[in-house]
Design a protein that fits this description.
The protein is of the alpha/beta class. It has helices spanning about 15-25, 40-55, 70-80, 105-130, 155-175, 190-195, 200-205, 210-225, 235-240, 245-260, and strands at about 5-10, 30-35, 55-60, 85-90, 135-140, 180-185, 230. Helix 2 (about 40-55) links the parallel strand 2 (about 30-35) and strand 3. Helix 1 runs parallel beside helix 2 (about 40-55) and helix 4 (about 105-130) runs parallel beside helix 5. The longest helix is centred in the middle third of the chain and has 28 residues, at about 105-130.
């Protein structure tokens, strides 16, 4: 599908991987709708993209936790005449710590953003794509969704949902000209750690990637219509090695790395 001059919508676009995916799409000639809560950050990025890539850039500051947020976002984009050909579900955050010590309100917020908002956006925009000219959906999952992850138990569970949903609907939507790709980053140097509350570990120092590098991997895989992609050879190697062990052993090993951090 031709993407130059088409429209992409990117959630979580105010920083990190989301902002860099928007930059990568704009570099390839796509117009973008930037979605996040922080209007000032969105405005700064929109100005940058218009200046550096001569594309159109809209902003839509909203909270995807709100009930009906996905349907309302679809309505606003359609009202502006923006037919979305690429949806990037990047919005999300992590919670670090022992599960029972975490506040249930925070856990509910985690699931609302990482799971429910993503599911509703995928359903709403994917349905329009399937009924019209097709399109692309990039779901930012995580290698955390491949294995049980003590100290990030609920976060890893949300990413397992994203991965499973994405790989399943990639087959359902493939015949309707909608390509779905799950991007699995590992440790990425963004604001993630500031929000989650975890300090950097030896593992994160060794395996960490830059956000622009992750974005390039994701967009390239999306346009190649791959069902999933692990960002970076180190993460690919780590996942391959981990699969040698039973799941309970993987969980124990991860716990030894993360506990008391």
């Amino acid at each position: 599908m031709k993407i130059i001059d088409q429209w992409a919508l990117v959630t979580g676009a105010s920083s990190g991987i989301g902002a860099d995916i928007a930059r990568e799409l704009a570099r390839r000639g796509m117009n973008v709708v930037l979605v996040a809560r922080r209007q000032d950050r969105l405005d700064e990025l929109a100005i940058e993209l218009r200046r550096d890539h001569s594309v159109q850039a809209d902003t839509d500051a909203c909270d995807l936790q709100d009930e009906g947020a996905a349907a309302a976002l679809l309505q606003r984009t359609q009202a502006r005449g923006r037919h979305i050909h690429v949806l990037v579900n990047n919005a999300g955050f992590g919670l670090h710590g022992n599960f029972i010590d975490q506040d249930t309100a925070d856990l509910r917020q985690l699931i609302q953003v990482n799971v429910i908002a993503l599911m509703e956006l995928t359903h709403a925009f994917g349905k329009v794509m399937a009924e019209h000219d097709g399109g692309y959906i990039l779901q930012v999952a995580s290698i955390a969704g491949v294995n049980p992850l003590p100290s990030y138990a609920a976060y890893a569970a949300t990413k397992a949902f994203v991965l499973s949903l994405s790989e399943a609907i990639a087959h359902e939507l493939g015949d309707r000209k909608v390509a779905v790709t799950a991007l699995l980053p590992g440790v990425t140097w963004t604001e993630f750690f500031d929000v989650s509350g975890q300090k950097p570990t030896t593992y994160s120092r060794i395996f960490g990637m830059s956000s622009p590098d992750v974005a390039r991997v994701g967009v390239k895989a999306l346009l190649a219509e791959r069902h999933s992609v692990i960002a970076g050879w180190r993460n690919w190697f780590a996942i391959g090695l981990a699969r040698v062990f039973p799941r309970h052993v993987r969980a124990w090993l991860t716990w030894q790395v993360n506990k008391n951090r």
